[in-house]
Structures are given as C-alpha cells and as structure tokens.
Amino acid sequence: MSENVLVVAFDGLDKELIEEFELENIRQEEFGSIDNQTGMKNIYTSELFASFITGTNWEEHGIEGLNKWKDSRGEILDTLVPKNLLETKRGLHRVRETLKSALDAEETKWEKEDLKVDTLFEKIDNSRPIFVPGYNPSTFWTIEADLRPLGFGKTPAETMEHYDTREFSHRKEKLFSELENEFIPARDFLMMHFHRSDTFHHLYGDKDANYDEEKLREMYNEMDELAGEIKEKALEKGYDYIIFMSDHGLPAKIGHNENAFYSSNKELFLDQTPKIMDFHDKVLELVE
Ligand SMILES: [Zn+2]
C-alpha cells in the first residue's frame, strides 16, 4: 500500500534535551536516536541531510561538511592547505583562516547541483522539498544571515528576533500554506527543514560560551508546540507517516555533538538505531 510520508527536520534538536524537557509532541509513538556517525566524515548539516535524502555517504553523493567554496579562490586554498592535513594538524587551522581572508575566499552552501546521485525527490514523483539542506537550502541560510547581526553589535535577543521575523516565520508559512491548501492533496513525500533550533543553540546552547538552560527550555517547548500543530494539520490532510528528526545535537568544540533523534507516529525501525542513510530506503519502501 502506498503511504503518504511527511518528514519534518528540526535542525540540531538534541535528544538528551528533548528527554530532559519531557517534550510530548516531538516524542511520538516510536522515539529513538539516529546514528549520524557511521560513514559520515563530519557531523555537519549539509552532509548529513544529503546522506538522508540519497541513502549514500559523502564518498558517493559528493557533499562534505557544511559549505563549499564560492569560486576558485577557495580551491587554491585547498591546494595550499590540504583538508586531510587539517584533521591531524590543529595549528594549520589558523594558517588556513589567515590565507582564507588574504585570498578573500568565501564559502557558500552545498545544493542540488553539487549532488552526484539522485535523491528521494527525483525518485518519488509526487514529492516536495522545502528548504532541505544539501538540496534547496533557503537563501537566508545560504548568505549566512542567521548570526550576522551579532557582527554589527546586535544582541543575541535582537539577532533571534531578526531571525524569527524574517526566516522562521517564512519557513512556517511555506509549510502551513502547503498543509492548509485545499487544492493540493497529501503528497507521497513532503520534507520540511526548520533551522531555528540550531541558530538558537549557537546563541544560547554552547556549553563553552553561553549555555542558558531556561532559554533552551522555552525554545524546546515552542518547537514542541509547533510539532503538535504540524502533526494535527498533517493527519487531517491525510499523511499516514509523520516523522520528526534532527541531524545532530548541541554545538561542540568542532561541529556538533551526536545527539540526533527521530520519532514516528507509526512503527518504523522498532528498537534498532537507524543510520541517517537508512531513512532513504525506508521512505521508498513506504511510498511504493
Ligand atoms: Zn544541522
């Protein structure tokens, strides 16, 4: 039987905090961890979502980490300071950063044109991606507008206010106009990505810089409320499977911690911990 599947990603939402704050909507009937390390090179958003939608890892799909170079200046930098040396020799990071600004090399986000293999969106006819990293990231994120106000002396609260009014509300609108549109039936596969939780973590959830448990609790509850609203609308519309997930957890010294979660309103992997690449086959199995 063909099922209609909705996946909603809450970037960086940390499994340990979901449990600590006892979120009721985010934790559905099946709730568990995602293995976001097996086969992955980095615990970074673009690479992780590219793996989710292709069922392969960076060696096959071609997306590594978070960003790619905007032009050939960055590629020169890679020749001067090879990436494989960066992983072993920490001092090279500073050299690389200096060269990066000397060359004026800029980074941007990976997207569909960079993928070397097909994704769920090519394989499933009636599918739609809304701001999926590694595929069709939002312009706001691509131009790195999230935390930029801080560099202009704005406070974390002002930065978050700017984010919420320009980006978070825009993403919500995209999803709800799809779910509430009477003329669009439930799709075979709809995938939505919210980046708000990760942006918030970088302002209030970094254990080495600015950890604020109360602020985090408030944001987690807001995300839980949103999840409840989405679930209600999606069920009404005829979605059979509602899957919530994250790609990683809180910021860490390099990248993010591994605390990714998933939840499903119906049995999915039972008590096995899925690798992030395993969702691709599972979704295909459900929609076929
Ligand atoms: Zn992420």
Give an overview in words.
The protein has 288 residues and is α/β, with parallel strands linked by helices. It folds into two domains: 237 residues, Alkaline Phosphatase, subunit A (3-Layer(aba) Sandwich); 35 residues, no CATH class. 42% of the residues lie in helices and 12% in strands. α10 packs antiparallel against α11. The termini are close together.
Comma- or semicolon-separated keywords:
binds zinc ion; alpha/beta; 8 strands; two-stranded antiparallel ribbon; 6-stranded mixed beta sheet; 288 residues; 42% helix; Alkaline Phosphatase, subunit A; 12 helices
Number of domains: 2
Which hetero compounds are present in the coordinates? zinc ion
Name of the CATH architecture of the largest domain = 3-Layer(aba) Sandwich
Specify Rg, calculated over alpha carbons: 19 Å
Mean pLDDT value: 93
In angstroms, what separates the terminal alpha carbons? 7 Å
CATH class value of the largest domain = Alpha Beta
Per DSSP, what share of the residues sits in E-state strands of 2 or more residues? 5-15%
Helix content: 40-55%
State the major sheet.
6 strands, mixed
Sheet with the most strands: spatial strand order? 2-8-7-1-6-5
Number of strands: 8
CATH-defined fold name of the largest domain: Alkaline Phosphatase, subunit A
